[in-house]
Amino acid sequence: MPVNIGGKNISIVSKPFIVAEMSGNHNKSLDRALKIVEAAAKSGAHALKLQTYTADTITLDVNDGEFFINDEDSLWSGQSLYKLYQKACTPWEWHEQIMKRAKELEMICFSAPFDETAVEFLEELDVPAYKIASAEIIHLPLLEKVAATGKPLIISTGMATVSEIDDAVRKIRDSGCEQFVLLKCTSTYPASPIDS
């Protein structure tokens, strides 16, 4: 069954649907974020995906244990998750400008919400679809809220077991959504060649 995102049909017989990921690559510069949109459009991407969260909605402001990166091989060694997410998040006040620029360049723009408040915010912007991050596939209240919008979902499965994927699909369908795509992916960044 084809999935329609922003007027573009996606199926096993359609050409690949190319999505550019902004993530935190804007480095807290709106000008750079808009240049990323332009570069994505120039590259031929059909869509641009954002991430919608704040440090406060994704983690705790704690500087030890599981909330602190001690791995010496990590690019983020010595940082708390809270500080890292503060640096990486796309400010919510930028979303409308980024989406407007994408539309001007005939690109679809959607986002990955990380909590229910992000879904409410994105609904105000009328995004055409949602992406569910690998880590959020077990966040069933989030899946229910997103699925209830009636918009298509793209769901990463990188951290999920088969049972967790089944639970997610059941929750999505029970919430009235049949327009979804499951992605087989890795959640190791950067991915080693064996995991790619």
TrEMBL record:
GO biological process: carbohydrate biosynthetic process
Pfam families noted in UniProt: NeuB (PF03102)
InterPro entries recorded: Aldolase_TIM, PseI-like, PseI/NeuA/B-like_N
Domain PseI/NeuA/B-like: 36-193
GO molecular function: N-acylneuraminate-9-phosphate synthase activity
Entry-linked PANTHER family: N-ACETYLNEURAMINATE SYNTHASE (PTHR42966), PSEUDAMINIC ACID SYNTHASE (PTHR42966:SF2)
Protein name, UniProt field: PseI/NeuA/B-like domain-containing protein
Organism expressing this protein natively: marine metagenome
